[in-house]
Amino acid sequence: MNQVGDEIQTESSLQRAGRELAGVGAALAAHLRRHWALWLALVLVAAAAWVGLETGIQRLLGRWIFPYNHSFLVLGMAAWLLFAGLRGAAIDRIGPSVLGFVALVLAVAAYALTEAIDFTLGMQVLLPVVLLAIIMALAGRAFAAYAVIPVAMLYFTIPIWDLTVGVLQDISTWAVTTWLRWTGITAHIDGYLITIRAGAFEIAEGCSGMRYVMVSMALAAFFAFAWLQRWRSRLLLLVMAAILSMVANWVRIYTLVLIGDWTAMEHYLIAESHDGYGWVVFALFMLPLFLFARWLEGRESTLVDPRQGPTRVGRVAPASAFLLAGVLASALVAGPVALRGGAEIPETPDRLVLIPEPAPSWQAAPPAQDWQPEYHLPHALGHQGYVANGGVQVDAFIARYRRQGPGSKLIAFNNSLWPGWHGSGSRNVTIDVSGASRQLQATRLSAGRAQRLVWNWYVVGGRPTADRVQAKILEVPALLTGRRDAAVIAVSAPCAVTCDEAEIALREFVQAHGARLEAVANGAADSGS
Predict the structure, then answer these.
(1) pLDDT at residue 339 above 60?
(2) pTM of the predicted model, to two decimals?
(3) Under DSSP, is residue 362 helix (H, G, I), strand (E, B) or coil?
(4) Are 410 and 491 within one domain?
(5) For a FRET experiment, which of 24, 183, 212, 261 has its CA 20 to 30 Å from that of 195?
């Protein structure tokens, strides 16, 4: 008898689940019958975006493999927030918007400009902007207002977080070295290199803790906008997430240094699994974060959540309006494909003669072997040493790009002025070049006991600058005037006990030859002059 009752109860539960599923299916079917044209328009625009925004999308997907592999989870969070935000929403009208199309034109134009100068991060940053503009153009401003937060969540998948790596490296190094001093651990600190009796640890870019900060803040933002209503509570949770994730990284590095010291660098965590160990420490520090989030939620328990009941929509535009808007938006989004042009990718760079006739007292010499800048696929390349009478050798280097494009451009992550060296203490120096004042970036390099001083600046479309970011920005006016050429100029000298003699040699060399170096960077050597 009990067995029969259990079977009846089980059947009743299955029937109840089936009825609920059928209700969801019926609601979805009703939604699609009413808004089929909007969804068809969105599908058309998505297909066009895959063509027109392909460069930015493909490069972003490549970063999602590593280290942004949390991005797929963020997509689910964003979709859930959009669904939750629309629950109980009051929308007076769903339909195409003229203002949305204006925003879409501006967003696509900005994207096309960043693609024209091959600015990868710029393209990726603009992708969510284009998405929000598409939603506004097809569904209207009222609907887009509920999509702002979900779309903003996508910035946890954009490599803009890479810009925090240097700052987080500095903070982590300071925190760990401070703890080592407090606890009496003997260690020698040289930049990001921590040397103990058993060996050396480098707080490299991967040890900055950027991934922990990014993931913790993504989780905090999801909880904040899903279950918290006060902006003050949301901000507190985000700040707490950033602090706890950074402290977790400091604990990870500090304990690994201790383990390495105690085990003569032979522990499994040192040799094989320091990354997995880091995520275990991170998870432990996330527990108080979620407890804090639940406490904040409990404080707001007396508030009334406005997102209750079904979505209320006043008017829906006719199907023909959505379809026409979809075709127009698709044409706009696909537009950047028409502006793509294949830049010439050089097989081997031309060799530049930097200074055929050095100034009096300077003589050409073979370039130094310990300083070899690496620039990917330039059209022309020059590297030569010069020595004053009985003085310090100065090396000059120029990499020139006649027409920048994907894979062959001046500002790129795979280009480096000092591979194998650690750069620190960068500052700007001012020097006169042919009667004009120039700002140069001076950087002190170290590799073991060896030290060097490097001065460098850029020439983009004929305009000099010492700043890497400004060099990228200068590509915009250069593009508008029809110039795509750019070059880097660098001079370097070895340091003895101090870098005073190297700095004097560099200053004398640039004052004597800076005008010629800039002429070569601007293309004077292209014609053999």
Answers:
(1) yes
(2) 0.81
(3) strand
(4) yes
(5) 212
